[in-house]
Amino acid sequence: MGYKQRKGKHDDGDDDSYKKDEKPKMTSGQQLLPSMIKNKEKRSAVHAKLKEQKKLEKRKKVKARDDLERRALELGEELPPRPVPRTIENTREADETICKPDDEELFAANDADEFSSVLKQEHIPKILITTCRFNSTRGPEFISDLLSVIPNAHYYKRGTYDLKKIVEYAKKKDFTSLIVVHTNRREPDALLVIGLPDGPTAHFKLTKLVLRKDIKNHGNPTSHKPELVLNNFTTQLGHRIGRLIQSLFPQDPNFRGRRVVTFHNQRDFIFFRHHRYIFENKEDKQADTKNTKNKDDKAEGVAKDRVIARLQECGPRFTLKLKTLQHGTFDTKGGEYEWVHKPEMDTSRRRFFL
Amino acid sequence: MPRTSVVECPGCPPIRALTFDDLGLIKVIEARHKENGVAKVVERWGDPDSSKCVLAASIDDREFDPLLAVARKCGSVELISPVNGDLRFSLSNGSRVDGGSEEDPVSGLHLFKKKTLQSSSRSCTLLSCSKKGHVVLRSVELPSGDATVSGTPLTWTVCGSGEVLCSKVHESEDYALFGGKRIEVNVWDLEKRTRIWTAKSPPKNSLGIFDPTCFTSATFLNKDDHRKLVMGTKSHQVRLYDISAQRRPVISFDFLEAPITAVTEDLNGRTVYVGNGSGDLASYDIRTGKLLGRFSGKCSGSIKSVARHPELPVIASCGLDRYLRFWDTESRQLLSAVFLKQHLTSVVLDSQFKDEVVGSDAPVIPDASVELDETLDEDKEDTPPPVKRKKKSKEGSGSKKKKTKKVTE
């Protein structure tokens, strides 16, 4: 009985399916979505059809655009502007906390904050690096890499001291920052950066760590003071994190060293890279020959004394993600947070905090 | 098209709030009916200076000649007019050692609303308490021209050691409570300047571990009754003490895992609003210790201060996330949020504020009624949304059903 019914229905459906595909489209226009159809076969059929249509449309569009461009090239006109692709970053949710360049209050706050004495070069940054209680294999290697990246950094064994005691000690010895590398299962997985004497405490998740020795063709950094590149720290929180990171490094880089440390923020992930760079004058013969075909002599001239920047990666490579920013030094029990990442904030993919 | 979610803020009833921050700025935030109740920064008083960081503030929002007292990090206490921000009087602490200085900052401040009979009409009384426990009670004469400190300030110490972190003066202004790090909460009679009650530390727990006391926030539960105190501790506990009953807490319950940083009572005398160090705000029924509900809305930094509006069902919260937020107390919805760029230390509400359009000529009493009406309106407006939402969802499901029917037909 049941079988019959089902079969009968199925047959009906088969007969109607053609009509149905047409009918809803006529009535509700674009409202019909394949996901509204409950029958899987029909749904997939409709879906495939829609997809095919879309593909064709896209191809048409691309062709039209290419045609336009080609024609413009032939006629020697200006090329039509390429549309800017829509990315998650440039469709980011509007955020009133983004720093504005003409905000005098921001500058006043900068002058008053915890890092200003280091950043105004009244104090030379002096960093204490330590670990969590248990530290082996990749931990020490990562620390030795960090020591070569950050000038004036000193590694102290953790021992069995409380972190609060270490903070006290570091304050007494005039350290300006404290970095704790936390390892889990012999793999560094978190970084705690504490500004001293009363600076904030930032807790970062550390992922994708690649040590120097694992990077192919890596360079070996010199002991020059590195240059620092901080990208995309736009909001007030990001600005603060940027200043925290900035206070780890000396403010007077040796440009002779041609050594650059980058903290690049993209979608709240902070990418750390460490490079050596070199500027080379290069005469690119291939480029010359190519250029002469299309462009006039000016391009040739440019090509001759072109300066090329070459990069060589050295030092570790890792990604940080901010989890909390605590007001004051490390205090898990009584600490007040300036910013805590909470799951309820992750309701949109286009909302970023840094 | 990217799907963008717009944060819907219903907007607040006409309200005026003053916030104080790390740089010593005072910002006036107003919400009006005309602009759909979106709160905005209207004025900014003072110049940014980190030594002027505001530690405590208190407002006397009477109808005639309101006053605002502000204690700064450098040790001075300023009396400011909350209407236009004019500095009326500044008590600098060069001469006096006790009651607030750089080494011994002020932790609590209260501006008395009640008039003392013996003093003239234009004077005000000010109570300030420093971290080391020095309490100063002084009255300031505010004639039209120069202001003077009248009489010698009354001083006493609340505690021998420890650190006073929270203090509060009762609505009747006869009693004050003090509590802090290693100081059990104690209640003082302000007229006689005697301690009338001290709490007893709670017993050790089952493991024999004693939690050292550290009170971080305090309030009196009831307007008429000074015998019930609500305290928030560093070990994320909220405690209710009843002076008339016992010296140990009557009720104590945990609120999440960060230290309690703000406790504010409601007008009804049974609800308290609790804010903590990781930016959670909730309302509790203190009689049973039951959670009424959390205020959810992207609060990411420690809540420093919560203020309850005396008439409207609105609370304002501010903190280290640099936002001032207005919440509805009934529906616990976010009404409006303002980004204020600095770490905020405290907020006070000016209850005398009225929408100018209504206000200027009309006498006072109708005004009040208007405001009440508005509050009623607000109430009405605030209650429907869930219903509406339900409707919407119903409609949505209905339409879906219809469509699916169409498909299957």
TrEMBL record, chain A:
One of its GO terms (biological process) is maturation of LSU-rRNA. Gene3D superfamilies: Probable brix-domain ribosomal biogenesis protein. It comes from the Eukaryota. One of its GO terms (molecular function) is rRNA primary transcript binding. SUPFAM superfamilies: Class II aaRS ABD-related. Transmembrane segments: none annotated. GO terms for cellular component: nucleolus; preribosome, large subunit precursor. Residues 9-25, 38-55 have a biased composition (Basic and acidic residues). Residues 125-331 form the Brix domain. Pfam families: Brix (PF04427). SMART domains: Brix. Residues 1-64 are annotated as: Disordered. PANTHER family: RIBOSOME PRODUCTION FACTOR 1, U3 SMALL NUCLEOLAR RIBONUCLEOPROTEIN PROTEIN IMP4. This is Brix domain-containing protein. It comes from Daucus carota subsp. sativus.
Automatic annotation (TrEMBL), chain B:
The lineage of its organism: Eukaryota, Viridiplantae, Streptophyta, Embryophyta, Tracheophyta. Gene3D superfamilies: YVTN repeat-like/Quinoprotein amine dehydrogenase. The keyword Electron transport does not apply. Residues 368-409 are annotated as: Disordered. The keyword Repeat applies. One of its GO terms (biological process) is ribosomal large subunit biogenesis. It comes from Daucus carota subsp. sativus (Carrot). SMART domains: WD40 (SM00320). Residues 387-409 have a biased composition (Basic residues). InterPro entries: WD40/YVTN_repeat-like_dom_sf, WD40_repeat_CS, WD40_repeat_dom_sf, WD40_rpt, WDR74/Nsa1. It holds the Pfam family WD40. Residues 370-381 have a biased composition (Acidic residues). GO terms for cellular component: nucleolus; preribosome, large subunit precursor. This is WD repeat-containing protein 74. CDD domains: WDR74. Keywords: Repeat, WD repeat.
